Amino acid sequence: MSSPSLLTVSSAQRLAVAVVVTISVGYTITVIAFVLSAGSFPQIALLIGALAGFFLPHYLHIRAALGNVEPSGAPYGLAMQVVATYAPFPAFGPWWTAAAAPILAGSVLLRLGPRRGTWAMIPIMVFQAWWSSTGPYGTIASGFYYALTVFITGFVLYAVTRLVVVTRELEQARAELAEAAVLRERLRISRDLHDGLGRSLTAIALKGDLAGRLLAGLPAGAAGETREARREIGELVRIAREAAQDVRRVARGYREMSLTQETHRAVALLEASGVSCHVNLMEEELPRPVDEMLAWAVREGVTNVLRHSAATTCSISTSRVSGAIRLEIANDGVAPVETSGGEGPRDGHAATADGAVLSEPEGVPAGRDGSGLTGLAERAAAVGGTVRARRAGRGGFRLTVEVPAP
């Protein structure tokens, strides 16, 4: 069984407005209909004036209460409502006052607050009890009934408007608690990254340094192999140290990526892996969100080239196309996609919810290792961009990212 949904500010405000309108119309509609149908022209004019003088301040009180605006200054609007409630008594008798007095009690509570407003309601309740018990058909029971009507109606109007304020405060409290929970989780992740992965990467770098020193002490019989091994170990140490620095930056919360720097790192990594790399970046300063998005795209694209292909060449280029910046990463050496169940070869395309067209990483069957491109598409969608990844020609693969930029 599903749990009931929480009351939102908008639903609470709709409820409050519905209750206020129902009470305001329900209490006064009979008097208004009687005067309009049987009253004289002066009585109709007096009724229109009384309605305007009563409900205009009433509306202002309700609006201020729904907006949680603290009242200030003299209560002129409340005084106008009192006059509009009791001045027509000689013309209409007790019927208009009986309809307006309970609504007036709500305005009293909203304007003066529950402490002072409760005391201010006492004269209203006493007057209602007096005329309803001393009239031609009055009884003590009717006096008690009308006095109780003033009290209950006033607090109902006050309660439904305060419900909106309390609901808004609860929503703010929930948002603050959620933000605090996210902050605590970030602190935990930062601590775990710094204490766990950072320490492991530092140990890898130290072990690499040690291996390099041990190689330096070997006899010179295999100088070429020793030199090559020393170079590879040095590259391993450099990459481990850069990764450790990245972990520390993430843990400290100020990591910033740059397209130029990420491209330089990608070129060094590709060439160290035996992949010839060609770079053609446009000389234009990009907005920070666009630059960071494209840097992530370079990182993801180069990671796929190294992990999922036997590429010998790779190109990275940027260009401006129709108000957008386009990044293209193309490589060769794509492995053929295995098929199962006699379904024939797949084209490697998959559509995401945001409209980006993705592909399985080069030659990797669906569901095995495709989360990187999905995450990249989500990053691109956050800045209004798109991602397309597809096979190009025979054994080629092209990753295209377009991000709007002024």
UniProtKB/TrEMBL annotation:
Domain Signal transduction histidine kinase subgroup 3 dimerisation and phosphoacceptor as annotated: residue spans: 185-258
UniProtKB keywords: Coiled coil, Kinase, Membrane, Transferase, Transmembrane, Transmembrane helix, Two-component regulatory system
GO terms, molecular function: phosphorelay sensor kinase activity; protein dimerization activity
Any one cellular-component term (Gene Ontology): membrane
Transmembrane segments: 15-37, 44-62, 95-112, 119-138, 144-165
Pfam families recorded: HisKA_3
Residue runs in coiled coils: 163-190
Name the UniProt record assigns to this protein: Two-component system, NarL family, sensor histidine kinase DesK
Lineage: Bacteria, Bacillati, Actinomycetota, Actinomycetes, Streptosporangiales
